[in-house]
Amino acid sequence: MIGEVAGAIAFLTRLPVPGADWKGPLHRLAAWFPIAGLVVGALAAGAYQVALLAGLPQAVAVWVGIVAEMMTTGALHPDGLADTADGLAGQTPERRLEIMKDPRLGSFGGIALLVSLGGRGVLLATMPGARVVPALLLAHAASRWAPAWALARHPYARANGGTGAAFVGGGARELAVAGVTALLAAWLLAGVGGLIAAAAAGVAGIGATAYVARKLGGITGDVCGAVAEISLLACLLVLAGHLPW
């Protein structure tokens, strides 16, 4: 289990993780994606807190936290969101997949990044200050369940494989472990309100995955990043409301 957790953190971040040379089936790592999300959220929250202690306003501190997140992950999921948004502008599944391989950023991808990164900044900056840290932890943990769902429930779209192809093939075990981890984190961090936010993240992830998979004939690594970003926004949107937590 320790090797699987280390492998999941190493795959979803740029952190040097001891013991991350996992040799087993890669789909087993998906069970621990929410743990990797907690690590990312903790580093973003730490950067946010340091910025507050330095006397910066909450909105600026939130921006610092987002920058820390991007450095930790290499903007892995936002990159997937941008590629997926650009690809969906194509007219056929084959053309969509071709566009997604193009490293250049298109207009749809740019708009998706603006909505995603700008949206999370606004939602976090307008929360009561005491809620930002648990919201970062919760949203990053809960949003990592969506890629586990995509990999377990949808085929890989590219016939010649790709980065995410080796992770396809999980099932009930991966979804159950990831789900329990995300829900436990949600309950401990924000009680009933956290569970509602985690559920919203899950529903958004399932819906987004189904829509994109229908357009592409399956999923890719970029799609996993895209649905994680959509789930994160859904989670933060609920947490920014007036639920008791």
Keywords summarizing the entry:
mainly alpha; 10 helices; single chain; 245 residues
What do you see in this structure?
This protein is mainly alpha-helical. It has one domain (2-239). It contains ten helices and no strands. It has helices spanning 2-12, 33-53, 58-73, 76-87, 93-101, 107-125, 129-143, 145-153, 172-216, 221-239. Helix 1 crosses helix 2 (33-53) and helix 2 packs antiparallel against helix 7. The protein is globular and about 50 Å long. The model has no long low-confidence stretch (mean pLDDT 94).
Radius of gyration: 17 Å
State the helical fraction.
over 70%
What share of residues are in beta strands?
A: under 5%
N→C terminal distance: 32 Å
Tally of separate domains: 1
Class by alpha and beta content:
mainly alpha
User: Overall mean pLDDT score?
Assistant: 94
Number of strands: 0
Instruction: Name the overall outline.
Output: globular
Question: How would a textbook summarize the main sheet?
Answer: none
Number of helices: 10
Q: Helix and strand succession?
A: HHHHHHHHHH
Low-confidence parts lasting 5 or more residues at pLDDT below 50?
A: none
In short:
The chain is mainly alpha-helical and 245 residues long. The protein has ten helices and no strands. The longest helix is centred in the last third of the chain and has 45 residues, at 172-216.
